[in-house]
Amino acid sequence: MALPISRGRISHTVRSEAGWLMRALVAPLENETIIRRAEQKFAAHIGRTECITFPFARTAIWATIQELNLPPGSRVIMPPITIKPILDVIVHLGHEPVFVDIDPTTACFDERELAEVVKTRPAVAVLTYLFGLVPNVDRLVRILREHDVFIIEDFSQCLNGEFNGRKIGTFGDVAVYSASSVKTFDTFGGGYALANDARLIAGLRRRQNELRRARRTDLLKSITRNFVRNLASSRMLFALVTYPTLRMATKFSKKAVGRFTGARSTEPLANLPDAWFRRYTSVQAQVALSELPRVTARDALRRSAIDHVVASSGVTDRPFGEPGQHHVYWQFIVYVRDFPRAREALAAHGVDCATTSLVLLTDLPRYPGQRATPWARRLYDLGVYLPCYHQLRKSELERMAVAIRELAPSS
Ligand SMILES: Cc1ncc(COP(=O)(O)O)c(C=O)c1O
């Protein structure tokens, strides 16, 4: 009997995470030399003048928007699906989110809708690349630049993606990356801001210096959470404990069970939490220095795995990005008609799956800017995350291809 295939894996080995946990118990958290070295390596890797580290990507966005000194009520173009804290930052800073629906084939902004929205004089756009898919960046950036919109690229899901040979993260005025759990480059949390403009860099540095000291307990919690996820998704434990538990929970139909890493809150925040404003630690910077050289090789494994599954299953109804570009497939998504049915059909082959844990920001009645975004809604409800990580084996890929091919038309 073949072992079930987990919906997701952590990029680190269990052993290396145990090692980081030990180090995090005793190592200094504020070694500036190590932090600067990691910043320089990441900036050079992407091809930007400078990288400034923050505890979260949301904090990097917060710092950037503060530096722009926008008048209150400025309009900020947002994707309808991303993490909610980014929306919390925009709203907290007194600005107005303006949502642009996605193009179902790229999971990025729909170009026609974007071209209309830029006429309403937005100040900023958070250009978000989902699932490691590269859209037609030239066209999106041209639409935004023609209207002088300040571009923040969020490439948390698209590290090492390229458009026409140029790295994602080099197109906007600022680019942010989140090195959080489950990402292809994961340093137990962390948000990187990349920029070329000297004034902006100086401002971001000043904001970084104003952050409070990091707390060791926060770091230990973050590594422990990853470690537990890592164990729970490792082949044997997943087969013996996690998968049977998930299957059982599914029977009692807890909605969160179907979400990739569980359900998230949808309520507005009265205040931005203190933990968002504490420094990135030198332990995390050390993780970054050790992990960054490994990312490209893992990308190559994941890309060829997905290319293989796509070719042998023949699946076409999925977001695939701009043809011919260098996609990195942080996730492999296919659209289905009925998620519970598709889940059962895949489970018959031992393939675990999920829908996104990101939040549909246009379904939050207590937030401003609410409107219908049907393509984002479809992705949120019916875009299924299939296993997609560098640890997948050949036999698992074959099984996934068979399972996808056999998905009944009604699934
Ligand atoms: C598109 C995107 N942006 C940002 C983040 C995370 O940002 P933060 O570092 O603020 O948690 C994620 C994490 O899942 C993400 O998918």
Task: Describe this structure as you would to a colleague.
There is one protein chain. With about 400 residues, the protein is of the alpha/beta class. It folds into 2 domains: about 15-210, Type I PLP-dependent aspartate aminotransferase-like (Major domain) (Aspartate Aminotransferase, domain 2), CATH 3.40.640; about 230-265 and about 285-405, Aspartate Aminotransferase, domain 1, CATH 3.90.1150. The protein is about 40% helix and about 10% strand. The chain contains 13 helices and 13 strands. It has a 7-stranded mixed sheet, with helices on both faces. It has a two-stranded antiparallel ribbon with strand order 3-12. Helix 1 (about 15-25) packs antiparallel against helix 8 (about 215-235) and helix 3 (about 55-65) crosses helix 7. The longest helix is centred in the last third of the chain and has 32 residues, at about 280-315. It is globular. The two termini are about 25 Å apart. The model has no long low-confidence stretch (mean pLDDT about 95). Bound molecules: pyridoxal-5'-phosphate. Pyridoxal-5'-phosphate binds near residues 57, 58, 82, 83 and 154.
Mean pLDDT over the residues: 95
| Strand runs, count | 13
Please give the domain count: 2
Radius of gyration: 21 Å
CATH class value of the largest domain: Alpha Beta
Query: How many H/I helices?
Result: 13
What can be said about the biggest beta sheet? 7 strands, mixed
CATH architecture of the largest domain: 3-Layer(aba) Sandwich
What structural class is derived from the secondary structure elements?
Answer: alpha/beta
CATH topology of the largest domain, by name, is: Aspartate Aminotransferase, domain 2
- Give a list of the ligands: pyridoxal-5'-phosphate
Spatially, the strands of the biggest sheet line up as: 1-10-9-6-5-2-4
The ordered H/E elements are HHEHEEHEHEHEEEEEHHHHEHEHEH
Proportion of residues in extended strands:
5-15%
Using the alpha-carbon principal axes, give the shape: globular
Distance between the termini: 25 Å
Q: What's the name of the CATH homologous superfamily of the largest domain?
A: Type I PLP-dependent aspartate aminotransferase-like (Major domain)
Uncertain segments: none
Q: Looking at the chains present, what oligomeric state does this protein adopt? A: single chain
